[in-house]
């Protein structure tokens, strides 16, 4: 009984919290690049990959239905969308085409 609670409740909650931290960590870098109006050394490719990854995990979480998978990825999807769009707007015309 105790291991079912741990594996069925505690571990998914911890995974969701760690996922939220991971997805929201690049927000400050994207915000700083936006204020500077330059990407500088910031590589925007991981933001686009994260956007696609969270979109896929959200689709899987809805199809499964596994809300422990779906719910933490909603804010991750929004954060990845913000960072991707912000950095796309700052990329040079050669790089964004």
From TrEMBL:
Keywords: Membrane, Transmembrane, Transmembrane helix. InterPro entries: SWEET_rpt. The keyword Transmembrane helix applies. It comes from the Eukaryota. The chain crosses the membrane at residues 6-24, 45-63, 69-91. This is Bidirectional sugar transporter SWEET.
